[in-house]
Design a protein that fits this description.
Largest sheet: 5 strands, mixed
CATH superfamily of the domain at 20-78 and 93-129: Beta-grasp domain
Distance between the termini: 14 Å
CATH class of the domain at 20-78 and 93-129: Alpha Beta
Shape: globular
CATH topology of the domain at 20-78 and 93-129: Ubiquitin-like (UB roll)
Oligomer: single chain
CATH architecture of the domain at 20-78 and 93-129: Roll
Number of helices: 2
């Protein structure tokens, strides 16, 4: 899927210019990946360099029913560290987060949250937002 949502203003973000690390926490287990801005975007879902884009590039299993266009809340993540290096949430993202389960003060949509690379980031992928019945990658 992927693309742009024609019904919202696109989020403003500063792309990373140097390598940095994101630690994804799934099932309590951390997996650290190095993000290389020269390889962004990793895919076609979410904003380029977004947590969703990076999670998809490293096969971290972050669901996204709308293709990363800020039209659902399935890519809800919790940014435990490094949120100050991420772009500010726009109203459309906050509206979608209202529909997500288990929202915290550190919640973001992975498709809209773009780290600028000035700090390492720690992101939790909550267990309840994962689809355990999926097709295999093609």
């Amino acid at each position: 899927m992927g693309g742009k949502n024609p019904y919202i203003e696109e989020a403003k973000f500063t792309p990373a210019t140097k390598k940095y690390k994101i630690t994804f926490i799934r099932d309590g287990k951390p997996t650290e990946v190095e993000v290389d801005p020269a390889k962004v975007p990793y895919g076609h879902d979410g904003l380029p360099g977004s947590i969703l884009d990076i999670a998809m590039g490293y096969h971290m299993g972050l669901d996204h029913a709308c293709g990363g266009v800020c039209a659902c809340s399935t890519c809800h993540v919790i940014v435990h560290e490094g949120s100050e290096s991420c772009n500010e949430a726009i109203d459309a993202e906050l509206d979608q987060l209202d529909e997500a389960a288990g929202v915290t003060a550190k919640s973001r949509l992975g498709c809209q949250c773009v780290p600028d690379g000035t700090k390492d980031v720690v992101v939790e992928i909550p267990e309840w937002n994962r689809n355990f019945a999926k097709e295999a990658d093609h």
